Amino acid sequence: MILSDQDIKKYIAEGKIQVYPAPDFEAQLGPCSLDLHLGSSFKVFRQSQYPYIDLKRKINLEEVMEEIQVAEDGGPFILQPKDFVLAITKESFTLPNDLMGRLDGRSSLGRLGMVVHSTAARFDPGWSGKAVMELGNLGIMPVVLYSGMRVCALTFETLSSPCETPYGTKSTHKYASQESPQASKINKEFEGK
C-alpha cells in the first residue's frame, strides 16, 4: 500500500521515515509523495583512454567520471542534449525495515525531454543516504537545472512484513550511505570470476 500525504507526515513526525533537512510540507508534499530537491554535486563522463566500458575489466569506473560542484541553492548546471549525468538529491532519507521508497521524475521536467531517473528507482527497506539520480536529456535543446529546485518525487510503500535483511547490512549492498554521486560498481560483481 502506498502512503497518503497524511501518513507521510505522520511517519516523518514519528521518526519512522527520517528526512534531512526537514521537508516543507506546504511546498513538497503531494497527495501521495514527497518532492525532493536537486543537490549541488554532479558526475559526468570524461574522455577516457578506454574505447568502451567492459564490465569484466578491472578498472575503477570512478576514474572515467568527473565530479562537478555547483553553488548550493541556485547554482546552475546545463544538461546538454543527449547528455547523461549522475546527480544527487539535497535531502538524505532513512527508511525503516517495513517500508520501501520509489523515486519518479516530475512531469514538468519530462515535458522538456528530461529523464530524471532512468532505472533503479526503488529504495529498499533500511536505505539511508541521498538518492542518486540518472539524469538524461532526450530533447534537442539544453536544459539549465538549478541546485535546490524540486526535481523528483518520492513515494513510500509498505511491505507485507518487515524484511529480514535491510539494505546496507550486507557487503554486497554497494551504495549504502552515499552522500555524493558514485559511479557504477557493477564490475565488482565479476570479481573472482
Structure description:
This protein is mainly β and 193 residues long. It has a single domain, classed as Deoxyuridine 5'-Triphosphate Nucleotidohydrolase, Chain A. 9% of the residues lie in helices and 36% in strands. It is built from three helices and eleven strands, in the order αβαβββββαβββββ. Strands 1, 2, 3, 5, 6, 7, 8, 9 and 11 form a nine-stranded antiparallel β-sheet that branches. Strands 4-10 form a two-stranded antiparallel ribbon. The relative contact order is 0.24.
Provide keyphrases for this structure:
single chain, 193 residues, mainly beta, Deoxyuridine 5'-Triphosphate Nucleotidohydrolase, Chain A, nine-stranded antiparallel beta sheet, two-stranded antiparallel sheet, 3 helices, 11 strands, 36% strand, globular
